Amino acid sequence: QVQLVQSGAEVKKPGASVKVSCKAFAYTFTYFDINWVRQAPGQGLEWMGWMNPNSGNTGYAQKFQGRVTITKNTSISTAYLELSSLRSEDTAVYYCARRFNHDYPWAFDPWGQGTLVTVSS
Amino acid sequence: SSDLTQDPAVSVAVGQTVRITCQGDSLRTYYASWYQQKPGQAPVLVIYGKNNRPSGIPDRFSGSSSGNTASLTITGAQAEDEADYYCNSRDSSSYHVEFGGGTKLTVL
Questions:
Q1: Class of residue A101 by CB neighbours under 10 A (exposed 0-12, middle 13-18, buried 19+)
Q2: What does the pLDDT look like over A89-103, one tens digit per residue?
Q3: Is residue B24 within 8 angstroms of chain A, CB to CB?
Q4: In angstroms, rounded to a whole number, what is the distance separating the alpha carbons of residues A115 and A22?
Q5: A83, B23, B31, B52: which could join B5 in a potential S-S bond, CB 3.0 to 4.6 Å?
Q6: Taking the alpha carbons of A117, A118, B1, B4 in that order, is the dihedral positive or negative?
Q7: Cβ separation of A104 and B100 shorter than 8 Å?
Q8: CA–CA gap between residue B97 and residue B93 (Å, rounded)
Q9: pLDDT tens-digit map of B12-34
Q10: Which site among A58, A109, A111, A113 would you substitute to test the B interface, given the most B Cβ atoms closer than 10 Å to its Cβ?
């Protein structure tokens, strides 16, 4: 079935960068946008940005501008989220999520299983 | 902080009907999508567009919208519906996306 599988948990020191991967299965990777959403412990969902895997076009939430980069490797149907200059407040579960259909860009399904990124000295 | 506002917590008795709301200016232009999230799990899309359910979502879940308020209604709530529910929509001034703060639903 259609699914997104993410890379494993990461522990990083403040100031470092992290790169999380999201591999797509059972659909044509270039047909649907990929979004990244994070969730700090006990908190709500926070949208970070999106990418069109066909064109490579991206858009980022104002809060993360300059620190976040979303990229892709089409040959292996994988999207990546890189977040730099990490601080303790970036400790969260990071999710990738596919645009569900072509009519509603903000309807996301399926979601990856999540990747816990812990920032600690 | 989010420009989409949700009540932090709502409760409902088993078998009763509950409405979860989401308020924001962008909802005057764009429909909300709704997600269910259970502890330790990724969110699941339950409603999108005017009132559409993805395959596998029970028909007790429905969506509606009026003015700046979107609503998710669960008709005949079940114990397994206990979860956090989030709305999202498109920001009125950009292609960006915003989420509501979430509503914790308790089924009594």
A1: middle
A2: 999 999 999 999 888
A3: no
A4: 10
A5: B23
A6: positive
A7: no
A8: 10
A9: 999 999 999 999 999 999 999 99
A10: A109
